[in-house]
Amino acid sequence: MTQVLLNPSLEEAYHFLVKNMYNNLITLFGDCEIQYEGRAYSHASLASRLIIIKVDGSVIVHEHTKREPINWQPPGSVIVVRKESGVLSIESIRKRPKERLYIILRRLYYLTSAEVNSGNFDIKGTEKDIVDLVLENPNLIEEGFKPIQREYRIPYGIVDLFGYDKFGTPFVLEFKRSKATLQAVSQLHRYYMFFLESYGKARGALVSPGISEKALNLIEKLRLEYIDANRIFDSITNSSRYTINISNIQRS
Q: Superkingdom, according to UniProt?
């Protein structure tokens, strides 16, 4: 079921969000200011923006240009909506690492709620193919990432890709072509601990097109990282070397 409100008042929008945002995908377009506090600090002045709130706690904010959002919060974030004097606020809080996204809405042009079911996401290619893409453009992982060796053999197995981040910290990457599970996190953690004990510092990240809720919780508990491989796949959708097939999407 899909619901749409056009030019809702702040009062209407507040009650709509409280009723729907925990079970449905929310999209809204309105005039807002944004503050972010966490690993850095940023402030986005009043402008019209598209805001997406997902059932898993993800929040994404887009402006009128570029593919990447100007602000976002990952799955597992806690979202609080408040109706304050003359504004509607949406606060997204991530506990670890501690981050806070604060959106102040002054006017809404539309607000939607939709039931969206998960579909299958199949990549016609192997982990090796995805690693090849990263080696061609290391910034797909993050700015300044420097790959050193693929299939790096250690006593606990073979690391898909080993490198260093821009600060010189050893960075272990484990790639999966499908939704990551607890087993994948445990595998990464063994590799990560080896490099942590060997170098005194290390980072470990799991790269996959999806991750189970339990696996994501374990990632955060073990102070590892998750990289959504969809960012990488976006860059290859026009490439003949790979086929991305999304099927079994149910529509209401």
A: Archaea
Kindly report, residue by residue over 91-120, the tens digit of the pLDDT: 999 988 889 999 999 999 999 999 987 765
Residues 76 and 136 occupy one common structural domain: no
Residues 88, 11: Cα–Cα separation, whole Å: 8
Q: Determine if the peptide bond prior to 69 is cis (ω within 30°).
A: no
- H or E stretch at 216: helix 213-221
pTM above 0.90, yes or no: no
At 130-185, the pLDDT tens digits run 888 889 889 888 889 999 999 999 998 899 999 999 999 999 999 988 888 899 99
Structural domain that includes position 67: 2-114
Q: Which of 114, 148, 179 is the last residue of a domain?
A: 114
